[in-house]
Amino acid sequence: MSDPQEIRSQSYSPWTIVNLVFHHLAEQGLKPTLGDGGDPGPPAAQLLLSLGIEPAARDQRQITQGLQQLADLRAAIFDEP
After folding, report:
1. Tens digit of pLDDT for each residue in 5-17?
2. Which of these, 59, 46, 60, 37, lies nearest to 17 by C-alpha position?
3. What share of the chain is helix, strand, coil (3-state, %, to 5)?
4. What is the pTM of this model?
5. How many CA atoms lie within 13 A of 26 on its CB side?
6. Sign of torsion, CA 23 29 35 37?
7. SS3 call for 53
8. Which of 4, 7, 23, 80 has the most CB atoms within 10 Å of its CB?
């Protein structure tokens, strides 16, 4: 995997990257949020773009699962309902 072209062709779920960032911020004692209770899609896309990652369009089912995972993570870390 030393070929730069091979590295560029790798892809990851955008929500996996956002989740990774959330875990890191939570470990630092911060309480990350996306969209202040509204649609987290645009702020998540901005986060990915700031990291140099082009967010890809995803179907609604995958988006809903990603949102639920983030909500569950936040509730577990910050002991919220």
Report:
1. 555 555 667 778 8
2. 46
3. 65, 0, 35
4. 0.49
5. 15
6. positive
7. coil
8. 23
